[in-house]
Each structure stands twice: as C-alpha cells, then as structure tokens.
Amino acid sequence: MERLLLLSRKAAEAGRLREVVAHNADFHQQIVEASGNPLLQELMSPLDSRLRRLFRLTSALKDGNPMCSEHERLHEAIRDHDEVKAEELARAHVAGTRASAMRYLAAGTTENQDSSTPS
Fold it and tell me: What is the pTM of this model?
C-alpha cells in the first residue's frame, strides 16, 4: 500500500491524474485483499472494472492531491490498527466519492438533455 501511495502522490504532484486514479484504484484493491475476507473479495471482484471506470470518469472533478490525502490518512489508520478511525475514514471517503460521482453524472445528464433540446 505504501508503494502505491508514493506512486500516487508523485503522479499527483506532476499533474498526471490518470496515473493517480489508477494507483488509487489499485490501493482500494489492496485493502480488499488485505482484509483477508473471502466474501468481501468475492463481492468486490466483479465490481473492480466498473469502479475503475467510475473513478476515471469522476477524476476530472478534482485534482489528485485530495484523493492522495484521503488514502494516506486511511493507510495510517490501517497501519496503526485503529479500526474505528479506519472505518470512519473509509465511510467518509466512500460518501465523498459517491457524492462527487452523483454530481458528475447529474451534470452530464443535464448537459446531454440541454444539447438534445431543440433551440
């Protein structure tokens, strides 16, 4: 996880957002694998490609630094075995990502409707 965080941070600082997104998706996968939970792994496996696509689509909404910071804090909590903090950070991260995705998708839908409306 630390290697992915370092690669992600370097990509963010260089403005290479696609790399940040790819490394962050890999970071998510690492957490699933590290959980040691076969059910979670089985449930997440078919969702991985869809999540990666969503991450790429919504990455245009922000730069890579906030994504990196959220993952770095989550990694610290996991490393420190602070389950309560890790859960809190993970839930906030998922909620924030979901809200960004919904805004992005709503804006795209609105733009598509506006462009198809005759003038």
Answer: 0.78
Which residue in 3, 21, 2, 96 sits closest to 12, CA to CA?
21
- Tens of pLDDT, residue by residue over 21-61, are 899 899 999 999 999 999 999 999 999 988 888 888 777 65
pLDDT in tens, 65-75: 888 899 999 99
Among residues 33, 82, 27, the alpha carbon closest in space to that of 55 is found at: 27
For residue 81, is it left (φ>0), alpha (ψ between -120 and 50) or beta?
left
Report how far residue 95's alpha carbon sits from residue 113's, in angstroms, rounded to the nearest whole number: 27
* Other Cβ atoms closer than 10 A to 22: 19
